[in-house]
């Protein structure tokens, strides 16, 4: 029903971005710019998107500076390490893939998100 007004998305597609309780604070459904956009507050959403992008750039610059400093000191620098996934080479295809390494569901059960970075 009313598909022409919903970009002809299926019911599943329309609900994929619905907010959910008790998810990690890094869940993309919590992006403040996205929530503003979905409520039709376009100007505020654009300002918020710019703020988030600048925050991401600042974090990247900090990591790059740390990498340079480590290199100058002859130390290893690991950089960003995902919380719940690790990169591995697929044994069949030889491609680099991300594999769940655990921890998310345990954190969700405990509602302990202390290991999550502040990305928003």
TrEMBL record:
Residues 42-69 form a coiled coil. The keyword Coiled coil applies. GO terms for cellular component: cytosol; perinuclear endoplasmic reticulum; plasma membrane. One of its GO terms (molecular function) is cholesterol binding. Pfam families: Oxysterol_BP (PF01237). The keyword Coiled coil applies. Keywords: Coiled coil. This is OSBP1 protein. The gene is Osbp_0.
């Amino acid at each position: 029903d009313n598909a022409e007004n919903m970009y002809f998305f299926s019911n599943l597609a329309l609900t994929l971005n619905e907010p959910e309780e008790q998810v990690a604070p890094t869940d993309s459904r919590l992006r403040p710019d996205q929530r503003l956009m979905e409520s039709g507050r376009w100007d505020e959403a654009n300002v918020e998107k710019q703020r988030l992008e600048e925050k991401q750039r600042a974090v990247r610059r900090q990591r790059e500076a740390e990498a340079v400093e480590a290199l100058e000191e002859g130390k290893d620098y690991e950089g960003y390490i995902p919380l719940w996934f690790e990169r591995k080479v697929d044994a069949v295809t030889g491609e680099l893939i991300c594999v769940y390494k655990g921890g998310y569901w345990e954190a969700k059960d405990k509602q302990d998100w202390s290991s999550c970075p502040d990305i928003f």
